[in-house]
């Protein structure tokens, strides 16, 4: 295949999950909130990273970008369909690789639901995503755990000069826009626990639950007195209501890889349209 297979979780992705406590530092890796719309080479309004839906420049004949997953120059006019066609062409030429990948739960303490942006790399709407009121007062600590299986990534080299000169950019300031220059595909899910327990206790408990290890009476008591919310990043319907959240997520994350996993963009990076510098959380 031309695409890069990721056997280990990318070091780049790990950069924003090493700390015990998530803070408000700007991030350069964005969890994808618009799975159905995002595509490589998209021109996107930077400020829309913090909105519920990303805002793209939709216009015919956008300047082609060079896909870097090939040995020669591969210029592709950016669109969702073009990206899918590129991926599926690889599948036609090669056998779908058998990938057995499983990420360890990565747990952080978060100040509040209103501060989950530090966990996702941009502001998110917790009211929509998790059905919680981010402004509600809560005496318990909030812990967020990420589960990620990165299958592969695509990167491109955009033509900034042609993009800025395109008719669709007339009257717009290039510094307000970004190219989506890198996308990683796979599976992602998150669990959010409100608990009185400390970080190390919760981290160990989540790992026990996820890996089906034996729980102590204290573990069971903590779970019984905790509030748990969770979400799965996918376009298909996943029943989140019936059953143990940890079991649901583990089943989702460990089910054999399919072609759909190679089409699911779960996080991305971007460079600004003006100078080509890496874009950070606005």
The helix/strand order is: EHEEEEHEHHEHEHHEHE
Q: What's the number of helices?
A: 8
Oligomerization state of this entry?
single chain
How many angstroms does the end-to-end distance come to?
35 Å
Counting DSSP E segments of at least 2 residues, the number of strands comes to 10
Low-confidence stretches: 1-19
Write down the overall geometry: globular
What's the Cα radius of gyration? Answer: 20 Å
Q: Approximately what portion of the residues adopt beta-strand conformation?
A: 15-25%
Structural class: alpha+beta
Main β-sheet, in a few words?
10 strands, antiparallel
Relative helix content: 10-25%
Mean pLDDT: 83
InterPro entries: Thiol_cytolysin_sf
Keywords: Signal
What does this 3D model show about the protein?
Helix content is 22%, strand content 24%. It has helices spanning 11-14, 80-93, 117-120, 126-129, 160-165, 199-210, 217-224, 245-254; strands at 4-5, 30-31, 43-45, 65-67, 74-76, 106-110, 141-157, 177-195, 227-233, 265-272. By secondary structure, it is an alpha+beta fold. Residues 1-19 form the signal peptide. Keywords: Signal.
What is the topological layout?
Blueprint: E1 4-5, H1 11-14, E2 30-31, E3 43-45, E4 65-67, E5 74-76, H2 80-93, E6 106-110, H3 117-120, H4 126-129, E7 141-157, H5 160-165, E8 177-195, H6 199-210, H7 217-224, E9 227-233, H8 245-254, E10 265-272
Antiparallel strand pairs: 1-7, 2-10, 3-8, 4-5, 4-7, 6-7, 7-8, 8-9, 8-10
Keywords: Signal
Signal peptide: 1-19
